[in-house]
Design goal:
With 365 residues, the protein is an alpha/beta fold. Helix content is 37%, strand content 14%. The protein has 2 domains: 100 residues, Aspartate Aminotransferase, domain 1 (Alpha-Beta Complex); 240 residues, Type I PLP-dependent aspartate aminotransferase-like (Major domain) (Aspartate Aminotransferase, domain 2, 3-Layer(aba) Sandwich), CATH 3.40.640.10. Strand 4, helix 7 and strand 5 form a beta-alpha-beta unit. Helix 3 runs parallel beside helix 8, helix 4 runs parallel beside helix 5 and helix 8 crosses helix 9. It binds ligand 0PR.
């Protein structure tokens, strides 16, 4: 650290340089995050100093968190659902498994989850000392429910399904998983970190939420398709009191218990997330999602005319292809199986898709 501080001008000229080193969103096709909506930025700035870790000091902000959970509960067909705002899918998944483990106490707990599950489950199982039982996918890249049922036993604390897989954008047959969960009385966690803000707004929504009786918890991330500022995730619980099983005493705070993983928690992105939902409403979100899905379809059609077949027909706005390289400066990602992966996020407008197609078409001409 410097002995004497630098001027504000020096400081921000340095920051501007660093900011310019970051990639231009116009060329980012690999990310599940996007540019935050203007109302999210405004709300975020307004609540910058708030800390939900000590909600008694910020009752107004705490009420925004309550309202955010209420919005998602209603969107997911259970207006009275419980839950809280996390830092994103990783924390939500860790907490869901922690909850499942605390509720069902067995000597050698295991988790049955699709092979397509996000790597955050690996972190969760490491931390919580849970055996991971990956379930193979069917040819459609969705979890095979029959194989999942075979892997569930008396030591299974949680069954996991994904609504919008990270790599191929598939929605697992959650209705089938729900039946298994009810039959075996197993906790079912749905990772809808990405799809939770896509599927409800599709023309033909795929069942994945609390409307299915076996679904116990749902992870959804406003900082992905919800266009909020980072970090914004939510963990929803069917039973509003369920999270209390994680309570630990916090004697000197304004509340005497907390079930969250983080202590200090930012209120700013919570305000940002709620701002987008209330500003856009159902109609606005449907329009955003319809645009992303249309762009995904256009990209798939365009790539196929150039001889790059799709690797999957996705349920959400993640497109994958058989391809080897892409032109610079486009930033794409590659799946574990080696497929080119593009996420058609809200910042990936139609003209960006056309520009990418023109570039890749030229490179392979
Ligand atoms: N569950 C699913 C289905 C996810 O896709 C992700 C992240 C998570 C959980 C974990 O969420 P957090 O990263 O919020 O904890 N999916 C993206 C991925 O791993 C995250 C991401 C976003 C990566 C933007 C890169 C990027 O530029 O690909």
């Amino acid at each position: 650290m410097l002995n004497k501080g630098i001027t504000e001008e020096e400081l921000f000229s340095f920051f501007s340089c660093k900011k310019r080193e970051d990639l231009d969103h116009n060329f980012i096709l690999s990310s599940m995050c996007t540019l935050p909506h203007d109302v999210a930025v405004r709300a975020h700035c307004m609540f910058m100093e708030t800390n939900l870790g000590d909600p008694g000091l910020f009752p107004g902000t705490a009420d925004l968190e309550r309202q955010l959970i209420e919005r998602f509960g209603t969107l997911f067909h259970l207006p009275g659902a419980g839950g809280y705002a996390t830092s994103g899918g990783t924390e939500s998944n860790i907490q869901a498994l922690r909850l499942a483990k605390v509720i069902k106490k067995v000597a050698a707990p295991n988790v049955v989850l699709p092979e397509s599950a996000h790597f955050s489950f690996k972190k969760a199982c490491d931390i919580l000392d849970l055996e991971m039982r990956p379930v193979p996918l069917g040819a459609d890249l969705r979890i095979c429910p029959d194989l999942a049922a075979e892997l569930v036993d008396k030591n299974t604390v949680c069954l996991v399904g994904v609504a919008g897989t990270t790599e191929y954008g598939m929605v697992d047959p959650i209705a089938d998983l729900s039946k298994i969960a009810v039959l075996h009385d197993v906790f079912l966690h749905v990772d809808a970190a990405f799809g939770g803000m896509v599927v409800p707004f599709l023309e033909r929504p795929i069942p994945f939420d609390f409307a299915l009786p076996g679904v116990t918890t749902i992870a959804v991330d406003p900082h992905k398709m919800g266009m909020s500022t980072i970090p914004a995730g939510c963990l929803l619980t069917r039973d509003p009191e369920m999270l209390d099983a994680l309570n630990i005493a916090t004697p000197y705070l304004t509340v005497k218990h907390e079930y969250t993983l983080a202590g200090t928690r930012p209120g700013a992105p919570v305000a940002g997330a709620l701002a987008v939902l209330d500003y856009l409403g159902m109609d606005g979100m449907k329009a955003v999602v319809a645009g992303c899905m249309k762009n995904t379809q256009r990209l798939i059609a365009g790539m196929e005319t150039f001889g790059f077949p799709r690797a999957a027909t996705p349920d959400v706005n993640v497109a994958t292809f058989v391809a080897q390289t892409v032109p610079t400066p486009w930033k794409v990602s590659w799946t574990r199986q080696g497929h080119l992966r593009i996420v058609c996020m809200p910042h990936v407008h139609r003209d960006r898709i056309e520009a990418f197609l023109a570039d890749i078409g030229e490179m392979h001409a």
